[in-house]
């Protein structure tokens, strides 16, 4: 592969070639989560409840690993674009080593706190037992998960998106097959129940790491790993964490938003909490596609920024923004034309479907404008500007929508809460434009 392809290849084909494997990977990962939930439900309702309670802790671990990985990817891409090979090698090696350390720390902490954490949400001995048995095995693989995500971001940083796609597919397929074998028993394999689900998850993650190790051994990435690159580099850790910490917080903010909106909507009836849950299931595929484009954009924009190809940086940003706006336009049309059918995929109560259709029509008013904040936040991370990216996400998920939802909810009820979505997207889009222009001027 041409090592300078990220600044030589035409922008539009380049974005497509980088983004499409990521879109597919994210869709497969989403499907895997749905299938995993299905298997838990087959064990028992208590097992499903336990999985639901452990899942937020798993999400936090993932957020830390992925967020720091974004910092690794951005730093490597910028150094490679600037032609600083040794610094790129150091960024990959230091980032990988720190990811392993994070994995060990997360493993120890989560295994220690999980019994106390679960007791905060359940008084059922069965749910508590299921949760502890599952969590202790899954969290024992935290270092494997951290290794997998570190490799993923290193390969993404150098533009080898197909490798990350294949590695994720192998892990997901392995997990699904082992779920069938280990949970319920097959042939000479005994039924291991919820422990089987945990072991399947860990082995699936391990399979992903094996793919990365085999590929790296046969064809190393441009950014190399090695003990000789562990020597201190002034400002390197600061650069990794300056993007990694805000990116981690960005990933955690949506969970905070959902919890706040659930609390606001619960006072109007359980039906509206259900509608919010259905909306987030439906919008997952829309925003997964947009985020896949953003993941493809990050290393390209970072590489060209490091190479001082500033005109090309602007083109990459503009093309990604337009494509995301087109995706959101399609999503808006679907929500306006057949909202009742979309709600009917998850609900059977006519009242829920009707109220949910109204919610989708209102919320979809903010889809197109949201492409501005989604794209800009991702572009800033690619440029190594983690804090400005976090400020945009903070406005989008907390500063505007939560207080507006509360105030409008007091005036118009659930309809007011739904209107808070497009209002927040509009205000955040303005904030994103202002921040991006200021960063550009300063640079």
Summarize this structure as a short list of keywords or feature phrases.
single chain; 17 helices; mainly alpha
Could you characterize what this model shows?
By secondary structure, the chain is mainly alpha-helical. The chain contains 17 helices and no strands. 49% of the residues are buried. The model has no long low-confidence stretch (mean pLDDT 90).
> How does the helix and strand content classify structurally?
mainly alpha
Helical content stands at over 70%
Largest sheet: none
Report mean pLDDT, rounded to a whole number.
90
Radius of gyration, whole Å? 22 Å
Uncertain stretches: none
Distance between the termini: 31 Å
State the total count of DSSP E strands.
0
Query: Count of helical segments?
Result: 17
Question: Which SSEs are present, and which pair or pack?
Answer:
Blueprint: H1 5-8, H2 11-43, H3 45-81, H4 85-119, H5 125-140, H6 142-157, H7 161-184, H8 193-218, H9 236-266, H10 270-306, H11 310-337, H12 339-344, H13 350-363, H14 367-382, H15 386-399, H16 401-412, H17 414-442
Helix pairs in contact: 2-3, 2-7, 2-10, 3-4, 3-5, 3-6, 3-9, 3-10, 4-5, 4-6, 5-8, 6-8, 7-8, 9-10, 9-15, 9-16, 10-11, 10-13, 10-14, 11-14, 13-17, 14-15, 14-17, 15-17, 16-17
What's this model, at a glance?
Helix content is 85%, strand content 0%.
